[in-house]
């Protein structure tokens, strides 16, 4: 903008000089103002161009919103953690967000009773420079009696192990604004400054994004040390480590993929029976994805497929496995 002002001053100065020269022309000569008009048109054009470029620069500053940010509640106790989370999921050019908080966001006078916990879909999300703005809708009967995994957004899933905190039907529309600098979002909420620090570079819906049993190396080491003496317990512990949240953990992904196909080569019967018997507690999306993508070329997939056809497991489940191995 500083260069823009200097350019406008220069243009106007040229225009004024032109006017002074015009005054010296014989009064009977009709003065042509086209040069003067062109100068001001040029100034206007330059102004619009600079403003357009400034808009483009602002658009290019668009904040990269993806992952999970955590605000640590300053009065947590050993028995009650009241942290808040802002979770963003970027798919292509679309950014979705969810806010995980407590009833203290609207029930500020709480005293003598425990808070409720909620998750709310973020609406009206917009950014400007390093600032972001959004809204959430929540209320008493939108809260649950205890905290639940960050990633759960479906009330029917949450209520399987939870209950509604308060049946009072009153909704609140809450507005938030803050600044994203580096790996933190700073906001002022109810007069207090909060700092939400980035904890995860991803956010997956429907699973516990902080599940500590995932991406663990101990079960992988146990498989490595007992590859000739596998049992269902070792395989189940191994399968439980798989999750879509491990996709950015290169070391785990490569090691677990290698072991997965080693197990299939040595004891596919035990592997698939253990998988089928425990499917309700496993991240099948992650396991199926690994079955589609063996990292080593020396794996005899044809032999593994033949072995599967003789295994006594659910027919539909067997077909899903075969399709994954055929990468269909």
Structure report:
- The protein has 9 helices and 9 strands.
- The chain has a 9-stranded antiparallel sheet, with no helix packed on it.
- It has 328 residues and is of the alpha+beta class.
- The longest helix has 28 residues, at 250-277.
- It has 3 domains: 2-16 and 33-60; 67-200, Lipocalin (Beta Barrel); 218-325.
Blueprint of the fold:
Layout: H1 2-23, H2 34-60, E1 67-71, E2 84-91, E3 94-102, E4 117-121, E5 123-128, E6 131-139, H3 155-158, E7 171-181, E8 184-189, E9 192-200, H4 218-225, H5 232-240, H6 250-277, H7 284-292, H8 301-309, H9 315-325
Antiparallel strand pairs: 1-2, 1-9, 2-3, 3-4, 5-6, 6-7, 7-8, 8-9
Helix pairs in contact: 1-2, 4-5, 5-6, 6-8, 7-9, 8-9
Q: Pairing-aware structural class of the strands and helices?
A: alpha+beta
What's the count of strands?
9
How would you sum up the major sheet?
Answer: 9 strands, antiparallel
Highest CATH level, the class of the largest domain: Mainly Beta
Shape call? elongated
CATH-derived architecture of the largest domain? Beta Barrel
Report the end-to-end length measured between terminal Cα atoms: 56 Å
If you consult CATH, what is the topology of the largest domain? Lipocalin
Features:
alpha+beta; 328 residues; nine-stranded antiparallel β-sheet; elongated; 9 strands; disordered N terminus; 3 domains
Outline:
Helix content is 39%, strand content 21%. The chain has 328 residues and is of the alpha+beta class.
């Amino acid at each position: 903008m500083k260069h823009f002002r200097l350019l406008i001053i220069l243009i106007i100065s040229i225009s004024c000089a032109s006017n002074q020269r015009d005054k010296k022309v014989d009064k009977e000569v009709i003065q042509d103002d086209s040069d003067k008009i062109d100068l001001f048109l040029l100034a206007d054009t330059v102004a619009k161009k600079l403003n357009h470029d400034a808009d483009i620069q602002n658009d290019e500053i668009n904040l990269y919103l993806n992952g999970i940010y955590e605000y640590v509640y300053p009065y947590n106790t050993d028995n009650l953690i009241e942290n808040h989370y802002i979770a963003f999921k970027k798919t292509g050019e679309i950014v979705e967000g969810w806010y995980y908080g407590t009833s203290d966001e609207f029930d500020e006078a709480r005293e003598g009773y425990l808070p409720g916990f909620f998750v709310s879909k973020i609406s009206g999300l917009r950014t400007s420079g390093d600032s972001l703005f959004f809204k959430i809708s929540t209320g008493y009967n939108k809260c649950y009696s205890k905290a639940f995994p960050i990633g759960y957004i479906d009330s029917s899933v949450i209520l399987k192990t939870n209950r509604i905190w308060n049946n009072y039907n009153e909704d609140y529309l809450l507005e938030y604004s803050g600044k994203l600098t580096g790996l933190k979002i700073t906001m002022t909420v109810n007069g207090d400054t909060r700092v939400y620090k980035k904890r995860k570079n991803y956010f997956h819906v429907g699973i516990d994004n902080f599940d500590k049993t995932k991406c663990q190396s101990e079960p992988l080491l146990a498989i490595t040390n007992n590859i000739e003496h596998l049992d269902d317990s070792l395989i189940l512990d191994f399968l439980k480590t798989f999750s879509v949240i491990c996709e950015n953990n290169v070391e785990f992904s490569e090691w677990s993929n290698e072991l997965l196909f080693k197990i299939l080569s040595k004891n596919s019967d035990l592997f698939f029976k253990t998988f089928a018997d425990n499917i309700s507690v496993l991240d099948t999306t992650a396991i199926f994805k690994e079955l589609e993508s063996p990292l080593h070329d020396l794996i005899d997939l044809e032999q593994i497929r033949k072995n599967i056809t003789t295994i006594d497991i659910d027919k539909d489940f067997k077909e899903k496995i075969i399709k994954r191995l055929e990468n269909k």
